[in-house]
């Protein structure tokens, strides 16, 4: 297959080439958000005007802080692992293949209380600059 044609360089991105970075938000009591993200489609990378798509990874024992976005909806598609997904005060044991819609303003987070990595596709209804409001 080789390298992609030059015209696709803004449209096609690979997580193995980009790599993951640690989440950087801080909670209401100063606790660090946990997990990793690899942005694949965004305003900056792709010129997207309407969405953002990333791969997310929550390692064993990590907790992605409960938070909400007043200006964007979000979704998760669980690829691997069985995390606890916190949705507006309800805890749900997710499994691979689950698609989870998170409406704008809905508090949500993820806890990986298992011994395996959790891998997710994460999408936002804005290409960038959404607000992250910690709920814990």
Sequence-ordered SSE layout with sheet pairings:
Layout: H1 15-18, E1 21-22, E2 36-41, H2 43-46, E3 52-58, E4 63-68, E5 74-80, E6 84-87, E7 90-93, E8 99-102, E9 108-111, E10 118-124, E11 133-134
Antiparallel strand pairs: 1-2, 2-3, 3-10, 4-9, 4-11, 5-8, 5-10, 6-7, 6-9
Structure description:
By secondary structure, this protein is mostly beta strands. It has one domain: Jelly Rolls (Sandwich), CATH 2.60.120. The chain has two helices and eleven strands; from the N terminus they run H-E-E-H-E-E-E-E-E-E-E-E-E. The chain has a six-stranded antiparallel sheet with strand order 1-2-3-10-5-8. Strand 6 and strand 7 (90-93) form a beta hairpin. The longest helix is centred in the N-terminal third of the chain and has 4 residues, at 15-18. The chain is globular and about 45 Å long.
List how many beta strands DSSP finds: 11
User: What is the CA-atom radius of gyration, in angstroms?
Assistant: 15 Å
Individual helix count: 2
H and E string: HEEHEEEEEEEEE
The N- to C-terminal Cα distance equals 47 Å
Beta-strand residue percentage: 35-45%
Can you identify the CATH superfamily?
Jelly Rolls
Which sequence of strands runs across the widest sheet? 1-2-3-10-5-8
| Overall body shape | globular
| Poorly predicted ranges | none
Report helical residue fraction. Answer: under 10%
Task: State the CATH topology.
Answer: Jelly Rolls
The profile of the biggest β sheet is: 6 strands, antiparallel
Mean pLDDT level:
94
CATH-level-2 architecture: Sandwich
- Per CATH, the class reads Mainly Beta
Number of domains: 1
